[in-house]
Amino acid sequence: MPLTQIDEAVDVTLTWHIPASSARLWQCLTDAHLLDQWLGRLVGGAVRTGSDFVVDHGEGYLCSSRVIACAEEKRLDFTWQFPDEPPSRVALGLDESDGVSVLRLRHSGLGDLADSYQLGWCVHLVYLEAASIGTPLPPSMFWPIHGTMAQLRRR
User: Fold this and answer.
1) Using the 8-state DSSP alphabet, how is residue 93 labeled?
2) Quick check: 107 and 89 in contact, CB under 8 A?
3) Residues 40, 68, 72, CA angle at the centre, nearest 5°?
4) Where does the pLDDT of residue 155 fall: very low under 50, low under 70, confident under 90, or very high at 90 and above?
5) What phi-psi label fits residue 66: left (phi over 0), alpha (psi between -120 and 50 degrees) or beta?
6) What is the pLDDT of residues 65-121, one digit of tens each?
7) Nearest CA among 115, 74, 112, 110 for reference residue 92
8) Closest CA to 78 of 24, 22, 39, 133
9) Could you tell me which CATH class the domain 3-154 is placed in?
């Protein structure tokens, strides 16, 4: 199972094992075409050191971000701001061993939103894994997968 750890707290902290190189994951995290396969459509800027970028998560729901730390194939930290939410921060760390990458995600500053973001990030990481191994999932499956995970979580 790719998900190996969930820490219950005010922040979302996930550890995910993906059968792909850290170089490939880095491409998925930073390349506009690949970003579209797991997070949303890049509609402005670029994912690189010091840059601002805007991602459309569907139907014009835009998240504005600024890259605040970037070490190729190792670390990517950025701000996260939807118009109707307080600003927060996402930190992604990558390690690789024997062709398997470990992605550590921490989304901090969420307050009461942490619980809802936890499920959302799990679904995004399912999409990231699929994109990284070359089998992207259709965007139309995001909410059905989210709904299934929510039902499983209630049990």
Assistant:
1) E
2) yes
3) 75
4) confident
5) beta
6) 999 999 999 999 999 999 999 999 999 999 999 999 999 999 999 999 998 899 999
7) 74
8) 39
9) alpha beta
CA distances from 18 to 1, 46, 90, 130, 145 (A): 9, 24, 19, 9, 18
Q: Distance between CA atoms of 121 and 21, rounded to whole angstroms?
A: 20
| Partner residues linked to 92 by β-bridges | 76, 105
**In the chain, domain spans:** 3-154
pLDDT tens-place string over residues 43-62: 999 999 999 999 999 999 99
Q: Which of 66, 36, 39, 42 is nearest to 55 (CA)?
A: 42
Joined together, the tokens standing for residue 29 give: 């995290």
**Element holding 76 (H helix, E strand):** strand 75-80
Task: Mention every residue, 6+ apart, whose C-beta is less than 8 A from residue 46.
Answer: 30, 32, 53
Q: Which helix (H) or strand (E) holds 57?
A: none
